[in-house]
C-alpha cells in the first residue's frame, strides 16, 4: 500500500505545524522569484494565511546568473520590510541565501568572505540538478571546518542522487541536513521527484521543509498538499523549522 497516495478530500492548507519557512525567493527583482514589491507582499500575505509565523527568505547566489551579495540582499530585505509595514502585515521576515556550490563559492569560503546564515549558523546550499558537483563531499567538509552547518536544498530534485544511492548514503552518513520542498510531495516537479521526497520522508531523513516559493503559481499548487496522505505524516513529523 502506498502510504503517501492521495486518498482524501482536500481540506484548507495549514502550515501552522511548520511555523517557519526557511526557503523562499521573496525579495523582488534580485533572482527568479518575486518581480515586484506588490507581488512579494501578496505572496507573504498568503503564506501568513497558511499559518506561518516567520519567513527566512533565501535569494539565489549564483556566479553566472545572480551575483547577489550580502549588501544587495540586506537592502532588498529592508525595502520589503518597509512595504510590509505600510501594508500593516505583521510577519517576522529575515534573509539568508541559497548558495550554488561552484568554484567561486569555494573561493569565497577559502577567503573567509562573509556568507549569509540563519539560526544556528545554518547555510542553505544547492547544486546543479543533473550532474554531481566536483568535490561535493569535500565542500561540505570545508563548510563544517569553517563552523557552518550546511543544509542541502531539495535533495529529492537532484537526478544524480536519484541514480546514485551510494552518494545519497554518503551524505546521510556525514550528517548533512536535508531540506525537502513541500511541492515535491504533490508531484509538481515530476513523479520521480515525488517518489524521492516520499522515500526521504518515510526514512525520516528530512530535517527541514520549505515552500521554495517563487510566485503565486507555487502557492496555488501547494494548496493540493492537504489532500495527500503525506500531509498527515508531515504534520506529525518533528522538523527543525520550529527552532529557527
From TrEMBL:
What Gene3D superfamilies does the entry give?
Metal-dependent hydrolases
Extract the InterPro entries matched here: Caps_polysacc_synth_CpsB/CapC, Pol/histidinol_Pase-like
Q: EC number(s) per UniProt?
A: 3.1.3.48
Q: Which residues cross the membrane?
A: none
The record's GO molecular-function terms, alphabetically, read: manganese ion binding; protein tyrosine phosphatase activity
Top-rank taxon of the source lineage equals Bacteria
What protein name is recorded for this chain?
protein-tyrosine-phosphatase
- Alphabetized UniProt keyword annotations: Hydrolase
What this protein catalyses is: O-phospho-L-tyrosyl-[protein] + H2O = L-tyrosyl-[protein] + phosphate
Q: Which family does it belong to?
A: Belongs to the metallo-dependent hydrolases superfamily. CpsB/CapC family.
Amino acid at each position: 500500500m502506498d502510504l503517501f497516495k492521495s486518498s482524501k478530500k482536500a481540506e484548507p492548507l495549514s502550515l501552522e505545524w511548520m511555523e517557519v519557512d526557511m526557503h523562499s525567493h521573496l525579495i523582488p527583482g534580485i533572482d527568479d522569484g518575486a518581480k515586484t514589491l506588490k507581488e512579494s507582499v501578496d505572496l507573504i500575505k498568503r503564506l501568513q494565511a497558511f499559518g506561518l509565523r516567520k519567513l527566512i527568505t533565501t535569494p539565489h547566489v549564483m556566479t553566472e546568473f545572480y551575483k547577489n551579495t550580502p549588501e544587495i540582499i540586506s537592502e532588498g530585505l529592508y525595502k520589503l520590510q518597509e512595504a510590509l509595514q505600510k501594508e500593516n502585515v505583521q510577519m517576522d521576515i529575515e534573509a539568508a541565501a541559497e548558495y550554488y556550490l561552484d568554484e567561486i563559492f569555494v573561493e569565497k569560503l577559502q577567503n573567509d568572505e562573509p556568507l549569509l546564515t540563519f539560526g544556528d549558523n545554518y547555510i542553505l546550499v544547492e547544486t546543479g540538478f543533473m550532474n554531481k558537483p566536483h568535490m561535493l563531499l569535500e565542500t561540505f567538509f570545508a563548510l563544517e571546518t569553517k563552523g557552518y552547518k550546511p543544509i542541502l536544498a531539495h535533495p529529492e530534485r537532484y537526478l544524480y542522487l536519484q541514480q546514485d544511492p551510494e552518494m545519497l548514503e554518503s551524505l546521510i552518513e556525514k550528517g548533512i541536513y536535508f531540506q525537502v520542498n513541500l511541492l515535491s510531495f504533490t508531484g509538481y516537479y515530476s513523479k520521480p521527484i515525488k517518489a524521492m521526497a516520499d522515500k526521504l520522508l518515510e526514512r525520516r531523513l528530512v530535517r527541514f521543509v520549505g515552500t521554495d516559493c517563487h510566485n503565486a503559481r507555487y502557492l496555488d499548487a501547494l494548496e493540493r498538499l492537504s489532500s495527500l496522505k503525506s500531509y498527515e505524516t508531515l504534520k506529525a513529523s518533528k522538523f527543525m523549522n520550529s527552532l529557527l
